[in-house]
C-alpha cells in the first residue's frame, strides 16, 4: 500500500537542526530527514507533526527534552478532554505535538513512539482527500469536509484538516509562510495546497 516513508524538513542550518533533533527526540530513523533551505523559519508552515505516545510520562519526557534543546513552548503539556499533551516549535519553525490518549501513567517513561502523524492544512478537505485516494492512499477515517485520515503503512500517518484549524489546534497564528517540508513516499508531485512530494528511494 502506498505510504509516507519520511518527512524532509527544509532548515536554514542542517548541522544545528541535526543537533536539535538528536537532543530532543533521539533517533527517529529514516522517518525524519533534513535539507538545507534558504526559506526563513518564519510564519506558519501549514502543518504540525505529532509524536503519539502511550502515556503522559512519555509526552512529558519528549516535551522537556525538546524545550531543553531549544524549542519554544506553544502549549504546555496538560490534560484535556481527549487525553494529554503539549506543543512546541522547533528552531527551524516546525510545529511538534506530543500526544497521549491516556491521562494516567502505567509506569516510567519508555521513550517509545507509537506513531508519527503529519497533519497538513488544506483549503478543501474533501477535494484533497480525493486527490490522495487517486494516488493510492487508503482512507481510515473521514468526517465529510472537516477531517480525513489515511491508513498508515509506513513511517508516518497522513491526516488532513483545514489550514485555519491546524493553526488553531497547534496554538499558533495562521501567518502565511513557506511549507518548508517535503513528503517522501507515493510519488513526485505537488498537491493542490502546494505540499511537495517526492518518490521514496
UniProtKB/TrEMBL annotation:
Keyword set includes Lyase: yes
GO molecular function: lyase activity
InterPro entries: Glyas_Bleomycin-R_OHBP_Dase, Glyas_Fos-R_dOase_dom
UniProt KW keywords: Lyase
Residues of the signal peptide: none
Name of this chain's protein: Putative lactoylglutathione lyase
A Pfam family annotated for this UniProt entry: Glyoxalase
Residue ranges that the Swiss-Prot or TrEMBL entry lists as coiled coil: none
Glyoxalase/fosfomycin resistance/dioxygenase domain sequence ranges: 37-98
UniProt cross-references to PANTHER family, sorted A to Z: BLR2520 PROTEIN (PTHR36503)
